[in-house]
UniProtKB/TrEMBL annotation, chain A:
Entry's family note: Belongs to the binding-protein-dependent transport system permease family.
Localization per record: Cell membrane; Membrane
Pfam families: BPD_transp_1
Biological source species: Haloarcula pellucida
Recorded name of the encoding gene: ugpA
Protein known as: sn-glycerol-3-phosphate transport system permease protein UgpA
UniProtKB/TrEMBL annotation, chain B:
Compositional bias ranges of the Gly residues kind: 27-50
Transmembrane segments: none
Region named Disordered: 27-51
Pfam family name, one: SBP_bac_1
Name recorded for this polypeptide: Substrate-binding protein
InterPro entries xref list: Bact_solute-bd_prot1, SBP, TAT_signal
SUPFAM superfamilies: Periplasmic binding protein-like II
Length: 310, 475
């Protein structure tokens, strides 16, 4: 963009000035529609959510709204059970993430080590199937399989082991939720880790083997460091997705018994659609959004890696 | 009590579920089958017969001293949930259109979507729905000033003829709930369906074990014990344990009233949930389900209860007559021939007081066509429409006593079912849905679920529920 002299500016017609403005800021004009769409689909809902969290009853008319300050936030954390649901959510997220990552990697390593191409294809398809099941269907299947009267899992435990089967949905509901999510989403980690393992150069692995490194050292010191970026992306995506978990848990336990499996997402849903507390629901959603975004940013900043954002 | 037969059933169910799950991944399907109806499709019914005659003769309405044609050429929008009443009344809607010259447009949605849309519609003042389904949030809506009271229309002689409408034919319980469950002096809407709790039992098992139909709670428990201990693959009873104000507390509220307790001893200071009557009722219900119910009783929903009974795996239940009777005696039931119905049990020294729930239709203050909406409500809940609807569909939820006394209807649904339901409806005591009932009712149900799951005693659960309910109002 050149700096016009006073003489040049004075001699320009309005049309020329508009044309210059267009030309000078051309990239921004081209970006404008996209930015507008982004504002509409991200900024506006966020701003409206914030607005709802600050008023007593929902209304589109800002001038009629009764602003109550942070009252909805206070209600959320006193009688709204927000703190409890945050604890439940973090427990589920951390446990499921660790399990899914570990199992996904082990499965990927095992399949990568299979020699037969046909067997490899079979295992790949087999391990991906759980991820293809819709959440509500999974919850329904889970309820049937875990049912103490007719479920196959209690039956196998009772007939095939010396232990009595617990009532999964009323005695160990949180563990049940974690295990079901693990079954559902380990395939996702498996796919990404499998792709990552496939990208590790054979020469690198071979060199470490020739150097006498045992299998576990090859993984710990060669393969996993090489896959660091892949692992990080997989964990980050799954982490964000775990915070959004809703359908499977709601379908399986309704967040109960009591509030034993009440994730933040379920709490928001119940405040909104069952208790009709839109302000409280919006307040919890705001806090949740801020915490998840902050957590992800901290992880990205602290762990730090190259080649993902660049 | 796993068995081989159940295992096969499970494998079949899992197979179907898995296929359904995989199918759920596809895009571009038709959405929910059976018509999610979010269509605003106008009246799609066939209110006229093949020879062009209307389903109900207009003479049944034109005798009323009501100016039916005063809004001719206008249109009303009805917001409704997917509900049997909608399917039952739709074929008759052309009668209303012919009678009044008002076009009817339906907006039928799944329940949660409808609640969201209704909330948005009234709270923003959009007034899109002239008529809409109303439920437990009635007093919240009323106190926010969103609901249009109907009394001015009842007082308008061009809109209402008491002699023709026969309001005394409506059940007291239905009228009471339409008045905000005692919280409103005015009509907040007009009741369209009612469900009342009764007892269903297995006649064959009762005969086999020489059991008498329970009139008291103790007999009910003893019968459950006998069946539970002497039958394989059959539990003594099954009941709603899942949280939610239409779930476990909907059943418990019957028993607590029969124990002489009530919700809100003193509104809004004393919820009454920690009174001895409530604690006794909660202890009886939780112990019944724990001792003679299925494993995982705390997670049972009404549909689980229905399925368990249909499969022949429970001795008896307390559930809504109107909702359960078609399911238990229809072709989906394996024990259709052996289902008996009786009034819900009560304590030996208690008062028979079954819970009931009414759906009503209301109109909002911002609706553009509230008077037309009132005419529709009047027509839909009138005796001719109600009787036709119950004789020409599988409906069995009339809010009018005359329908339950109608010989043709009684022969269709069964004399015993009709009489038990009628007796129960005449004594019914619905829940009073105060302004914050959705919030504290949910928390009360969570506490009861914890007690059923054995996580705490019934007394501790109800004491906590009382504190929560009172805090919600004092906070």
């Amino acid at each position: 963009m050149s700096t016009p002299t006073q003489t040049e500016t004075a001699s320009k017609t309005p049309l020329t000035r508009v044309r210059d403005l267009w030309n000078d800021y051309l990239p921004y004009w081209f970006m404008a529609p996209m930015v507008l769409v982004m504002v509409m689909i991200t900024f506006f809902p966020g701003a409206y959510d914030l607005y709802l969290s600050l008023i007593a009853e929902p209304t589109f008319n800002v001038f009629e709204a009764e602003f109550v300050g942070l009252s909805n936030f206070e209600t959320a954390f006193t009688r709204g059970g927000a703190f409890h649901s945050f604890v439940i959510t973090i427990t589920v997220v951390v446990s499921a993430l660790l399990l899914e990552s570990a199992l996904g990697f082990v499965l990927a390593a095992l399949v990568a080590g299979v020699e037969s191409g046909r067997a490899k294809s079979f295992y790949r398809v087999l391990f991906i199937v759980p991820m293809a099941v819709a959440p509500v269907s999974l919850a329904t299947i889970g309820r049937i399989m875990l049912n103490s009267e007719i479920g196959i899992i209690p039956y196998v435990i009772e007939t095939g082991t010396p232990f009595a089967a617990p009532n999964f949905l009323s005695e160990v509901p949180l563990l049940t939720v974690i295990l079901l999510d693990t079954w559902n989403w380990t395939p996702f980690m498996f796919i990404i880790f499998y792709a990552g393992l496939s990208s590790v150069p054979d020469t690198l692995v071979e060199a470490s083997r020739v150097d006498g490194a045992p299998l576990w050292r090859r993984y710990v010191h060669v393969i996993i460091p090489y896959m660091k970026t892949v692992v990080f992306v997989a964990v980050l995506i799954r982490l964000i997705d775990l915070f959004r978990t809703f359908g499977v848990v709601y379908g399986l336990t309704n967040g109960g018994p009591g509030t034993a499996t009440q994730l933040v997402s379920i709490n928001i849903y119940e405040q909104m659609f069952i208790n009709n507390q839109l302000g409280v629901a919006a307040a919890i959603a705001i806090v949740y959004l801020v915490l998840v975004v902050a957590l992800c940013n901290v992880i990205i900043a602290k762990v730090g890696f190259e080649g993902v954002w660049d | 009590m796993p068995s081989e037969r159940n295992r096969r059933n499970f494998l079949k169910a899992t197979g179907v579920g898995l296929l359904g799950g995989l199918a759920g991944c596809t895009r571009g399907g038709s959405g929910s089958e059976g018509g999610d109806g979010s269509s605003g499709d106008g009246s799609t019914g066939t209110g006229t017969g093949s020879d062009g005659e209307l389903a109900i003769s207009l003479d049944k309405y034109t005798g009323a001293d009501i100016d039916w044609k005063q809004f001719e050429g206008t249109k009303i929008n009805i917001g409704a949930v997917q509900h049997p009443w909608v399917s039952a009344i739709k074929p008759a809607v052309p009668v209303f259109e012919e009678l009044t010259g008002i076009d009817v447009v339906w907006n039928i949605l799944p329940e949660q979507q409808f609640r969201t849309k209704r909330q948005t519609d009234v709270s923003t003042g959009a007034g899109q729905f002239d008529v809409f389904y109303m439920d437990q949030v009635v007093n919240q809506f009323r106190e926010e000033g969103w609901i249009q009271p109907l009394d001015p229309y009842f007082e308008d002689s061009s809109l209402y003829d008491e002699a023709w409408y026969q309001p005394d034919d409506l059940f007291e319980a239905s009228k009471w709930q339409a008045h905000g469950g005692g919280y409103s002096d005015t009509w907040t809407g007009i009741p369209i369906t009612v469900e009342v709790q009764t007892q269903f039992y297995r006649k064959d098992l009762y005969e086999k074990h020489g059991l008498e139909v329970a009139e008291t709670l103790e007999q009910f428990r003893q019968n459950a014990k006998t069946i539970h201990e002497n039958e394989s693959d059959v539990v003594g009873t099954v009941g709603r344990g899942q949280k939610g104000y239409g779930m476990n507390i909907y059943i418990l509220n019957t028993f607590l009233r029969e124990h002489g307790a009530k919700l809100w001893d003193s509104f809004p200071d004393d919820s009454g949930l920690d009174s001895q009557g409530v604690i006794d009722a909660a202890e009886w219900y939780t112990k019944l389900l724990q001792d003679y119910g299925p494993e995982g009783a705390s997670t049972q929903t009404w549909s689980d209860v229905l399925t368990t009974m249909q499969e022949g795996r429970a001795g008896h239940i307390v559930a809504d007559a109107n909702l359960f009777w078609p399911g238990l005696t229809g072709e989906d039931s394996k024990v259709a021939e052996n289902i008996g119905i009786a009034k819900a049990p009560k304590p030996a020294d208690g008062t028979f007081s079954p819970n009931a729930f009414n759906w009503q239709i209301s109109t909002s203050k911002n609706a553009s066509n509230s008077e037309q909406a009132f005419l529709f409500m009047l027509w839909a809940s009138s005796e001719p429409t109600n009787t036709w609807l119950h004789l020409n569909s599988s409906a069995a939820f009339s809010v009018r006593q005359s329908v339950w006394e109608n010989d043709e209807f009684r022969s269709r649904v069964g004399d015993n079912f009709a009489q038990v339901t009628l007796d129960s409806l005449q004594e019914a005591a619905p829940d009073p849905f105060d302004r914050k009932y959705p919030e504290w009712g949910q928390r009360y149900s969570e506490e009861l679920q914890r007690a059923i799951a054995g996580q705490k005693s019934a007394e501790a659960a109800m004491t906590q529920a009382a504190k929560i309910a009172e805090d919600i109002y004092s906070g």
